[in-house]
Amino acid sequence: MTRAGKTQRFHPVFALRYVKYGLVACLIPMAQALLSWDLDALFIALWQDLYILIAFTAAAAVLWYTTSFTVEDEAVRIRQGVFVKKQYLFRTQSIAVLEITRPFFYRIVGASRLTMYFKQQAVPRKFSLYLPKKAAQKTADMLMPVHTDSSVFSPMGYERIAFIMLSANIVTAVFFISMTLKHASDILGTDIKEVAQTNFAYIISFLQKFLPMGLAAVMGTAFVLLSLTFLYSFVHTAGFRVCRNGGVIIMRGGLLSKTERRIYVQSISACNMRVTPAARLLRRVPVYISAGSFSGGDMPLMAVKHGSEAMLEALLPMYEAPKKALCEPKRKSIASYLWKPGTIFALSLMLLGAAMANMPSMLPVICVPALLSGACMAVSYEGYLREGVCKNENRTLSLVYTRFFTRHEVCIFTPDTSYTIREHPFAISGGWCDFYVSMPGSITLRARCVARYVADRVPFLI
Amino acid sequence: MLEFRVSRRGAAVIGLWITLICGILCFVLRYLLGVWAIIIFIVCGALALTIGTAHFAACSVRCGAHHITVRSGFLLCRTQRMPLKYISGCVILRSPLQRLTSTCVLILTTSGTLSVVWGAPLSDAERLSAHIAYERGAL
Q1: B136 and B126 in contact (C-beta within 8 Å)?
Q2: For chain A, what is the mean pLDDT?
Q3: What DSSP designation does A460 have?
Q4: pLDDT tens by residue, B24-49
Q5: Per-residue pLDDT for A275 more than 50?
Q6: Among candidates A451, A442, A434, A389, which has minimal Cα distance to A416?
Q7: Vertex A300, ends A283 and A118: CA angle to 5°?
Q8: Do residues A298 and A273 make contact, with C-beta atoms less than 8 angstroms apart?
Q9: How crowded is residue A462: how many other Cβ atoms within 10 Å of its Cβ?
């Protein structure tokens, strides 16, 4: 029998999410006023905006007032809704990962976001609670208790620099930095984008002293993007450390925006070692883990040096590297690996040829896509030699595949997998197929050109 | 062991569905496409009722002691293997036309994927559903 705890309300920051929608709705009257280009229409639009904001704020306040949660002995109960009442009941056993995030704005108002990721696909696959800082910590301790923790991985010195470079993600960083710039422009009232463009023009003019004009623009853009990415990664991974406490792995880090993740070891579906170009240069591989509907996030669990996998085994005792080659390249079709990067490479070479004849000044710029597609082709060729699947001695599954510039080495722990084989007439005549492994959280991995008899015999990890 | 194939009637019903959807789309876009709407409808309908029906009819389901295997397609083949223990749901859908032909759409779900058997015979789908339930100790 479960014992009901005290019913609590969310932090008021929960209501702000709905006020944001009101701000978006305010744009409609303003757009109408702009179209009519009239002072009277502008005043009417401003009044309408005021009413919209009041209505959305009132609705957000009512939603906040009617949303509550209770932590019971074995479950979390959440009640929501005004006219249609909804009640969620999540068993604590179904939680795979708990994530406590405190973005900079949340820290100012003393709030935390506690996100629960579940073991098996359910609706919803994750759920966020907006709580005061202490309440979030207390709730996390009740849902996934952690007593003491000893650090297993806390990068320092060169390891820290390597970890920053390995966890850098250009897409995430550019997205977050552009959002930050937008918010800063709104708050400060100055156009930061214009300042950034002026400084970018200085960088380009400086690079033009050493490089041709087109190449200077490309190198300048790459320099700015990489600098921003490393800056974001530096701030995001400050004070990063990984600990293990009994059956829970704890990851903490962040300077402005603090993140803490608690992951049940028994719910980890797979660990993915991503051999990126940076990882090849630094001879360290970032390890990402997925557990239930949690698919790895934006931070790796750790960076493992080649030949020192013992640290990883201390955190994940089930991990086992494949002891034999996963495929026989002779039985594969090289065309299925090289046709995409090969086509781009051939087009780049054709462009290069045309530039040599007609526009020699553009030659350095056109070399860039040729080099990138050449590198992509080399990684695809590596996939031709190494991509495959096999079962390990400790009842786990190893799968290697390549995407763009990265080789993924995955060790699958969960027995909750299903396999799909796809074939076309060429594959049937060659005796191979594309092999897909589906895991909880709708995560699907693909190994190309797996021998058909091997794909048929891949056992389940039951 | 339980094994069955999708019946010709079941596959034809699905082919008819595709033809109907194509017809609705062509009707909606008739002003944009002009006379091409009729041509597209005839071509798509013919393909759906011939190749589409043959594609859906080439589906078979085999339920062994530990896992279910679903094979589908005759040109682009697809084989799915799902452990019986981790099948989280089995849904049987029936439209009025499928009630007349004693067929259904069978959907098997696991936590990571789902498998759809278009036009499965109703009696076989119900047997499989019961088998999964007994195997998992639900009944």
Answers
A1: no
A2: 85
A3: P
A4: 999 998 888 888 999 999 999 999 99
A5: yes
A6: A442
A7: 150
A8: no
A9: 13
For A403-433, the pLDDT digits (tens) are: 989 999 999 999 989 999 999 999 999 999 9
Coil vs helix vs strand at B63: strand
In this complex, the residue of B78, B80, B111 whose CB is nearest that of residue A416 is B111
Backbone angles phi, psi at A101, to 5 degrees: -115, 140
Query: Which chain A residues are Cβ-neighbours of B66 within 8 angstroms?
Result: 460, 462
Apex CA B95: angle with CA B91 and CA B96, to 5°?
145
Residue B35, classed as helix, strand or coil, is coil
Residue A165 pLDDT > 80, yes or no? Answer: no
Burial of A360 (0-12, 13-18, 19+ CB in 10 A): exposed
User: Strand order of the sheet with strand B114-121?
Assistant: B89-93, B103-109, B114-121
Quote the longest CA-to-CA distance of chain B: 58
- Among the partner-chain residues B66, B76, B80, the one whose CB lies closest to the CB of A462 is B66
H or E element in which residue A263 lies: strand A258-264
* Residue A38 scores a pLDDT above 80: no
Distance from CA of B117 to the nearest CA of A (A): 14
- Is some CB atom of chain B closer than 8 A to the CB atom of A453? no
Q: Which residues pair with A398 in a beta bridge?
A: A390, A411
> Which tokens is B126 given?
């119900």
Q: Which of A417, A421, A462 sits opposite B112 (nearest CB)?
A: A417
Under-50 pLDDT residues of chain B: 137-139
One-letter amino acid identity for A191? Answer: D
Residues of A in contact with B86 (CB under 8 A): 415-418
Per DSSP, the three-state class of A106 is helix
Asked if A421 lies within 8 A of B78 by C-beta distance, the reply is: yes
Phi-psi category of residue B86: left, alpha or beta, with phi > 0 → left and psi -120 to 50 → alpha: alpha
Report residue B119: phi and psi, to 5°.
75, 35
ipTM given for this complex: 0.90
Q: Which residues of A111-145 are buried (b: 16+ CB within 10 A; e: fewer)?
A: bbbbebbbbbbeeebbbebbbbbebbeebbeebbe
Nearest chain A residue (CA) to B68 = A418
- Please enumerate in sequence order all residues whose Cβ is within 8 A of that of A1, keeping only pairs 6 or more positions apart, or say none: none
Query: Pick from A97, A117, A109: which is nearest to A133 by CA?
Result: A109
The closest alpha carbon to A167, from A285, A58, A52, belongs to: A285
Torsion angle defined by CA atoms of residues A33, A37, A43 and A45, in that order, rounded to the nearest 10 degrees: 0
pLDDT digits (tens, 9 = 90+) for A109-143: 999 999 999 987 667 888 999 999 999 999 999 89
Residue A266 one-letter amino acid? Q
Would you list the domain boundaries of chain A?
1-84, 158-236, 320-462
**Residue A299 three-state SS:** coil
Token pair, residue A91, equals 């068993």
Report the distance separating Cα A432 and Cα A332, nearest Å: 7
Q: How confident is the model at residue A185 (pLDDT cuts 50, 70, 90)?
A: low
Domains of chain B: 2-135 (2.30.29)
> Which pLDDT score is estimated for A401?
95
